[in-house]
Fold:
Amino acid sequence: MVFPQDTNRAPLEYSLVHPVNERLQLGIEYNYSEENISPVAVYRLIDATEDTPAVMLGTSSAWPSSEVDGNAYTVTLAKMLDEDTSATLGAAYIPDNDDWRMPASLSRRLTETLSASIMYDGDTLHPILIMDMDGASISFILLGGEDPAISISLFQ
Structure:
């Protein structure tokens, strides 16, 4: 949920994702304001090792970017840098805009239940604070460093 309603971002979106197996997750995203459904898929092509990053292929909405619409198709490299720090770097193609982006992120676990991340969508930085609980995760996001949003994830 994005709190300032005068932005060009969807104010409310829902996602439902199911792990099919240890490599594949499939799901849908629903944009409440535009009443459209988009597919979500993530496939881990290569596992991370001590020397190489994991490689994942995926598709999902181009959220959190405020400048693109539709789904993005991604290739992402992900690596643990140390016990508490991880990084990602990707290439994303957005066919609705015929646009390429280079998203990236850096995450650090601060305590057992608190993490901080900075996500780059290929254009803008988005600081994130994540609280992990038993069966849930709450993310406080500053979209573009300005617009507050909250994301709640429930899982088993």
